[in-house]
Amino acid sequence: MAxxxxxxESDYSAWARRHAELLRAGRYAELDLEHLVEELSDMGxxxxxxxxxxxxxxxxxxxxxxxxxxxxSERWREFKGDSWRATIIEQxxxxxxxxxxxxxxxxxxxxxxxxxxxxxxxxxxxxxxLPPETFPSHCPYTLEQLLDKSYYPRA
Length: 155
Hints:
Strand content: under 5%
Number of strands: 0
Distance between the termini: 60 Å
Radius of gyration: 21 Å
Order of helices and strands: HHHHHH
Number of domains: 2
Structural class: mainly alpha
Helix content: 55-70%
């Protein structure tokens, strides 16, 4: 066990491979439980951080699409939002993939959207110079709209 604990500090990949071997062999008494529990806990937090991060970017771009696009000056009227559209497409794709890989995130989606939305408003405000009060105080998009490839807010 002390050997595995040391291995955790010096060669994480080897530590992880060794634990997979021990688990497959049913040699549970040899596991470095302290670090194993820590890693399993971190995995869940990491997935949640990724979920909230992707929602943050998606929401900020949808807000910019809806609220900044209509306020662009005349010289920017030809702007079609291609870079925003590309970001929205990418985040939707990555969110869909994440949800397939980690279906256990589905029960926390509503909470994650709420948490990400507050940061998305601030990001959209910072990037557009529009006051935060410009945007709704609560997320105006449903989960279905967020993941719908064809949905773009009215501009």
